[in-house]
Structures are given as structure tokens and as C-alpha cells.
Write a structure and sequence with these properties.
Length: 299
């Protein structure tokens, strides 16, 4: 599969570029970025071509992988889908329900495959655990904590990007928590939100369609010593905890790319396709509507 990379930021440089360049199932055909000089640097690093025109890149590929801020991603994903290109998208698909809806609709109308990269869903230990808990059932509640230190004092994280600063933990790490809770506990029929707590901490309470409830705690300004992800489920089988994965983000992306290949070949919808990405976006948008935009203060 000929694939083009859209984006030249930290995630593209650290994960997307190296993985796509070395993946045996894809040919990294080219790179496009909003900064041409950065696109050339990344393309040169991986022995491929830098494109100045995104439509020229779309004309030369079968699929695109997108490592861009979510609302930039949404606009370009629609263009790519309408051009008949398969989609390897990052989370969140967009930061508005309308933006994500446009992506999902374009993918469906064009009949292209789509896979959204929620890291936890593509690491072997966590992916197997999610499948096992879904099969087990009987869970009545769960609690997820995704605490990052991207904007902690003295942090020099390469992911302290403008869109994360503007949208916060709800939109950056919230998708990770939802990507685990939804397949196990079911869709969400009602969401409550409160925040911020200390720093930028946000709390969600979710009512799931199957009758279960869950709580989610999110932050991008946790002290480094308190950062990390954890998820627990409580039910008939007792208490189970999301395992600590041994794989890397690169391992997860390689699997996601392989699953895009399979979805494109078989014509089957992927569990984490653009439609699932839309549902995650809708839930986050509902939560955001309960908070003062940009600040997280209660209405």
C-alpha cells in the first residue's frame, strides 16, 4: 500500500515516520507538512519525497496517515477520503462533533477503510485484555485515570503543543480512556463533567447503555511522579486492572497500519474506524459543553 504521511511534528518525527518507513506492508511514498522545510527534512530522513501540494500527494498514494492537530486532520481526512484514499487517523478525529461527523460521512460515502490510532487498543497485552473483559461481561462500574505531565512545572515535553494547551486533557488523553471503556461497558447515554480540580484535572461520570457506570479522571499537568494510566473494572468476577503494556507506541502504530491494510483488503469496518472516532468525539463534546470552554470552570 502506497501511503503518504501528513504532518511533521513530534509525533510524526518520533513515531509515524520511522514506523511507516520500516513497515513491510506499506511504501512511504511521501511527506506533506504545513512547513515545507520540515517536510523535506523528514522525507530526506526516510528516503522519500517531500510534497508542497497535499493534493499532489493524494494523487500518488492509496492511503494517508495523519499526524496533525485534530481539526487540521479532520479537514484533510475529508479531502483524502473523497479522493478515494484509505485513512490512518490519530485521536481525536476532531475536536467538534461536526468535524468528526464530516470525516465519518466522507469515509462511508467513499467506501474507504479507516483506522483511528488509540494507542492502548493496538498494544498486545491491553488489546487482549479489552477483548477478554468484553467477553466476560458482568461489570457494573469502572474507573479510569489518565494523568499526563505534559504541562507540569519544569516539563520539557515535546508534546506541549498549542492545540493541547488550548483543548487540555479532556481532548488529549480522554480519547484513550474512552477507547477502553466503550468496548467493554458499552456506549454512553449520559455524561457529567466537573473541573478543573487542582491544575487542569477534569472528572467525568459516564452512564453506559448496558446499565453500568464509570468515572474518568484526566490531567495533563500531573506531577511526573503521579503521572500514568490506570483502569479498573468491578463486577461479578471481582476487580480487574488494565495490564501494563510492554510494547511501545511504535509497536502499536505498526499493528494499526497492518489492520488498515486488512480492512482495505477485506472491505470490513474496523472496530476503531472513523465512526467509532466520531462517537468518542461526540462524548467529549458533550462533556466540554458542561464546562466553560477553554477553562474547565462549571457553568
Amino acid at each position: 500500500m502506497r501511503i503518504g504521511l501528513l504532518g511533521t511534528g513530534p509525533w510524526a518525527r518520533m513515531v509515524y515516520g520511522p514506523v511507516l518507513a520500516s513497515h513491510e506492508g506499506v511504501d512511504l511514498t511521501g511527506v506533506w507538512g504545513r512547513r515545507p522545510e520540515a517536510a523535506k527534512e523528514l522525507a530526506d530522513r526516510h528516503g522519500t519525497r517531500a510534497y508542497d501540494d497535499v493534493d499532489a500527494l493524494l494523487a500518488d498514494v492509496d492511503a494517508v496517515a495523519v499526524a496533525l492537530p485534530p481539526d487540521v486532520q479532520a479537514e484533510l481526512a475529508v479531502r483524502a477520503a473523497r479522493a478515494g484514499r484509505h485513512l490512518l487517523l490519530d485521536k481525536p478525529v476532531a475536536t467538534t462533533a461536526a468535524g468528526a461527523r464530516a470525516v465519518a460521512a466522507a469515509a462511508e460515502e467513499a467506501g474507504v477503510a479507516s483506522v483511528v490510532f488509540f494507542t492502548t487498543r493496538y498494544l498486545t497485552e491491553t488489546a487482549d485484555w479489552i477483548s477478554a473483559q468484553k467477553e466476560t461481561g458482568g461489570w457494573f462500574t469502572g474507573h479510569a485515570r489518565w494523568l499526563g505531565s505534559v504541562f507540569a512545572e519544569d516539563s520539557d515535553s515535546p508534546f506541549a503543543t498549542p492545540w493541547r494547551r488550548q483543548k487540555g486533557a479532556l481532548w488529549d488523553v480522554g480519547p484513550h480512556a474512552l477507547s477502553v471503556l466503550l468496548p467493554v461497558l458499552g456506549d454512553v447515554r449520559r455524561v457529567s463533567a466537573a473541573g478543573p480540580g487542582p491544575r487542569d484535572t477534569v472528572h467525568l461520570v459516564l452512564e453506559h447503555t448496558g446499565g453500568a457506570s464509570s468515572t474518568v479522571t484526566l490531567s495533563l499537568t500531573a506531577p511526573p511522579a503521579a503521572s500514568g494510566a490506570a483502569l479498573e473494572l468491578y463486577g461479578d468476577g471481582g476487580v480487574v486492572r488494565l495490564p501494563e503494556p510492554t510494547g511501545s507506541a511504535a509497536d502499536a502504530l505498526a499493528r494499526a497500519a497492518g489492520e488498515l491494510l486488512a480492512a482495505a483488503r477485506d472491505g470490513r469496518a474496523h472496530p476503531c474506524d472513523a465512526a467509532f472516532g466520531l462517537r468518542v468525539t461526540e462524548i467529549l463534546a458533550d462533556a466540554e459543553a458542561l464546562l466553560v470552554p477553554g477553562a474547565g470552570e462549571p457553568r
